Amino acid sequence: MQKIPLLLFLVSTIVFSQTDQRIYDIIDAVSAERIENDITTLANFGTRHTLSDTVSNTRGIGAARRWIKGEFDKISSDCNNCLEVSFQRDLVEKGTNQRIVKDVYVVNVVAVQKGTKYPNRYIIMSGDIDSRVSDPTNFTDDSPGANDNASGMAGTIEAARVLSKYEFENSIIYLGLSGEEQGLFGGQGLVKQMKADGWDIIGIFNNDMIGNIKGVDGIISNVDFRIFSEPVPATETEDQRRARRFYGGEVDGISRQLARYVYKTTKTYMPEMNPMMIYRLDRFGRGGHHRPFNDAGYAGIRIMEAHENYTQQHQDIRTENGIDYGDVLEHVNFDYARKLTAVNAISLASLAWAPPAPTTVEIGGIVEPSAKFKWSKIDGAVGYKIYWRDTTSPTWDNSRYVGDVTEYTLDGIVIDNYFFGVSAVGEDGFESPVVFPNAVFR
Any idea where the Fibronectin type-III domain is (predicted)? Predict the structure, then answer.
């Protein structure tokens, strides 16, 4: 097995432990004022229910999605047409489920910023366009949806404003999804198109409620946020499931690695924030718009506030027993939404500047005193990092940069006692997500 020279190891460790000033510039460029303006505009459409008015220019989901597309068009105009902006739609027929009480076109807004080196590899940030009140079939009453989910949609638009000033090797999609409250139809339709078009999806950051800091439990925090991720892909094969019994990986699927990537990026560049990795697909018994991507085998996570207030979600606007119900503007903390938008933006940028991850990572070292690795070479990578952690740790706590090699031995580290992974490192130090071993050699 090839070993990396000590001097090269020390130099490389210094180079790839440094941070990139552009990421700090991105954080500074995210504007709470612009986010507030966008949330206010979206809330002022009255209702954005999926089945609401599509003709009016001032009320309903039709007006909202045209406004969103217009904002993406303005951003594109300011960056020399760097965004490809379009609508994507699918017909959902009455009776598909109990919430679809009439035929409706579920229309998404898609803005694509093409990468310079890997234009068919996409990292996605999404927000939901639609809103609802207590009755999910009520598409006429006021449903401002200020936090759920004008906050996530406004954050996605703001991320596009900031990141459109840069060029990236991979493509970024800024996405407004519809039909979330009626059954995740917008995501289902887009995934169908992505599959048909052969898009290579790095992953999706689904932002659903990123503006509330005061929870129904009484906790107030403007630094805590949650990252939900499923443990292993829903599409894993029976052979892969059996392999996990012997080799591990119960919490090391591609979505979980995407969550760890956001966690690490946040702790590196925004250490004042407290990312909480939640080890489940979504909140207990509930769902979000990353799930259609997970269902299709793509990596996807949900980024959202840590402390929810259920009196402000899916509620008719009213005062009852001294409690003000309804998802209205006064409950949104715009600076907190700015912070979570920045978390998304720096994670998008880091992945968009990184090379692809190794497709194959093999591990060996059974009944030996050292862990051994082989991995596929990646065009665009200048080197690779091996990560390892205690089997009970949620995060990758140890790493070693090993240079531009495709095999390496960690002497003195027993394979039985840790979990391992490998990432590819680009010229500027940006890394791919970690890949958990997917093959074994002896």
Answer: 357-442
d(CA 275, CA 261): 11
Residue at a domain's end among 334, 352, 370: 352
Residues 342 and 369 in one domain: no
pLDDT in tens, 327-379: 999 999 999 999 999 999 999 999 999 999 999 999 999 999 999 999 999 99
The pTM of this model reads 0.95
Query: How far is Cα 151 from Cα 208, in angstroms, rounded to an integer?
Result: 8
* DSSP at 149: I
Q: Could you tell me the two tokens for 316?
A: 């008719």
Q: Which residues sit opposite 275 in a β-bridge?
A: 225
- Within a domain: residue 215? yes
Residue 18 has a pLDDT of: 62
For residues 314 and 365, membership in a common domain is answered with no
Same domain assignment for residues 267 and 407: no
Least confident of 17-31, 66-80, 197-211, 420-434: 17-31
Task: Give the per-residue pLDDT at 19.
Answer: 87
Classify residue 381: in a domain, yes or no. yes
Gyration radius of the chain's alpha carbons: 22
**203 shares its domain with 317:** yes
3-state secondary structure of 124: strand
The pLDDT tens digits of the residues spanning 388-404 come to 999 999 999 999 999 99
pLDDT, position 9: 44
Q: What is the C-alpha to C-alpha distance for residues 51 and 128, in angstroms, rounded to an integer? A: 14
Domain edge (last residue) among 286, 320, 352: 352
d(CA 23, CA 107): 33
Looking at residue 32, its amino acid is A
Mean pLDDT of the 54-71 span: 98
Whether residue 129 contacts residue 68, with contact meaning beta carbons closer than 8 Å, is answered with: yes
Structural domain tally of the chain? 2
Which range of residues forms the domain containing residue 14?
6-19+360-440
* Phi/psi of residue 86, nearest 5 degrees: -155, 165
The whole-angstrom separation of Cα 311 and Cα 217 is 11
CATH number, position 416: 2.60.40.10
Instruction: Note whether 156 and 132 are same-domain residues.
Output: yes
What whole-number distance in Å separates Cα of residue 111 and Cα of residue 315? Answer: 31
